[in-house]
């Protein structure tokens, strides 16, 4: 058991002792390994060193089978493994791995639009100067391709890069595109349930939660969908991303709907792309009053306007967003009774990823979903409806993102997006105004 093997396991990471495959005595002899309790307690106030959780309601004390006494653990990061008061957290304090410069790493041979090229140059400068930068790009602007020059420059400089997003679906959509664009670059993809990956890949794709296992590891960190739940509302995730950066590093944020706070914070370090890569306008939502649609669903009936909408697009892929799991289940029953084939997915769906894969392959042409799929899915010829658009869950940003699923393919740059409602809301009006404003910009 050499120091090199320990370095291979721990460099750039922070791991619980239960995740490190070396005996304690070996780890404690190493001059390059630091260890401390995973939880810290001061005057009865608990703090998790791994995730940064300070919310006392998310700590639980019980009789521990491991230490045979009363033991406290953090419930916030439990899915990453049990961080408890009897568990040590290990970090590497020696030299990190270096990566040889990779020139001409990008295999993509497409052409950027003039707006994309301007944004790409700004991101390259951010990488070279280790600056922060916000890329504010409308849905369908081709922001992944805009990243390619900055990624190519990073690998030419021998940098290690992390691209993270709050939601698994976004990472799953990005991964195959980046494998294809950068086939010579070692890559790993981390999310809950992912298979074992290379520990020191030069390009890491991960959900933001997974960065809790990293510390001062990356020269460049790119956060996609920076305004999305839960990252935008959870300081623990934001701290985890910050901690994963090296002290001198570039930090790039991507969003189609940045909050006003983010817009203000990065007003001097941002680039905006207000047109889609194919040059067509963003599809404008239509508003359709749908009456007492909840009552229809309670009676197992499909609202007439929803049925008519589905029939009008019967040969096209369709996506229906609903405000809750309860409504999703009711709508699914109504669709089955109407003999309309579909899949229904939400965050806790056991078959979620399988059903989404079936939908992507065209084996089913309708998917009913909560806002979990408002981002990170691109389907040619997609038609979209929001049922219950008046619900508070459908904020301006959510409605803009949902509308942005339509017309993303160059061969079919238009499509239908309809908000079925029982009363117009400010969020609906603001979403439409937002889209109109983007369409009016050059």
From TrEMBL:
GO terms for molecular function: 3'-5' DNA helicase activity; ATP binding; DNA binding; hydrolase activity. Keywords: ATP-binding, DNA-binding, Nucleotide-binding. Residues 305-442 form the Helicase C-terminal domain. Pfam families: Helicase_C, ResIII. Coiled coil: none annotated. The keyword DNA-binding applies. InterPro entries: Helicase/UvrB_N, Helicase_ATP-bd, Helicase_C-like, P-loop_NTPase. One of its GO terms (biological process) is DNA replication initiation. It comes from the Bacteria. Residues 124-276 form the Helicase ATP-binding domain. This is Competence protein ComFA.
């Amino acid at each position: 058991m050499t120091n090199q093997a320990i370095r291979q396991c721990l460099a750039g990471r922070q791991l619980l002792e239960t995740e490190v495959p070396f005996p304690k005595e070996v780890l404690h002899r190493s001059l390059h390994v630091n260890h401390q309790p995973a939880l810290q307690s001061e005057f009865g106030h608990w703090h998790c060193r791994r995730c940064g959780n300070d919310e006392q309601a998310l700590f639980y004390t019980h009789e521990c089978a491991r230490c045979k006494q009363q033991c406290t653990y953090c419930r916030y990061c439990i899915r990453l493994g049990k961080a408890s008061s009897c568990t040590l957290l290990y970090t590497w304090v020696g030299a990190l791995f270096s990566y040889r410069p990779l020139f001409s790493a990008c295999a993509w041979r497409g052409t950027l639009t003039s707006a994309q090229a301007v944004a790409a140059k700004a991101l390259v400068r951010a990488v070279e100067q280790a600056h922060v930068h916000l890329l504010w790009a409308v849905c369908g602007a081709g922001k992944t391709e805009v990243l390619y020059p900055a990624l190519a420059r990073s690998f030419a400089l021998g940098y290690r890069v992390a691209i993270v997003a709050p939601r698994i679906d976004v990472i799953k959509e990005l991964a195959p595109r980046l494998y294809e664009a950068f086939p010579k670059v070692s890559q790993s993809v981390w999310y809950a349930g992912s298979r074992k990956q290379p520990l020191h890949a030069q390009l890491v794709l991960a959900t933001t939660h997974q960065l809790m296992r990293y510390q001062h590891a990356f020269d460049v960190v790119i956060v996609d969908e920076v305004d999305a739940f839960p990252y935008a509302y959870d300081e623990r995730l934001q701290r985890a991303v910050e901690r994963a950066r090296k002290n001198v590093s570039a930090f790039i944020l991507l969003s189609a709907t940045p909050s006003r706070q983010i817009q203000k914070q990065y007003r001097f370090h941002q680039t905006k792309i207000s047109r889609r890569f194919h040059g067509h306008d963003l599809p404008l939502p239509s508003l359709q009053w749908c009456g007492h649609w909840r009552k229809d669903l309670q009676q197992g009936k499909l609202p007439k306007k929803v049925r008519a909408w589905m029939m009008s697009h019967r040969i096209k892929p369709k996506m229906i967003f609903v405000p809750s799991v309860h409504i999703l289940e009711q709508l699914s029953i109504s669709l089955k009774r109407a003999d309309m084939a579909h899949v229904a997915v939400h965050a806790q769906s056991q078959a979620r990823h399988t059903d989404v894969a079936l939908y992507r392959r065209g084996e089913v042409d309708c998917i009913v979903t909560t806002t979990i799929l408002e981002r990170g899915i691109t389907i040619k010829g997609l038609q979209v409806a929001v049922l219950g658009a008046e619900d508070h869950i459908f904020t301006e940003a959510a409605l803009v993102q949902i509308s942005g699923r339509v017309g993303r393919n160059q061969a079919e740059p238009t499509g239908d997006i309809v908000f079925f409602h029982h009363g117009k809301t400010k969020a609906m009006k603001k979403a439409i105004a937002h889209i109109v404003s983007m369409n009016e910009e050059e």
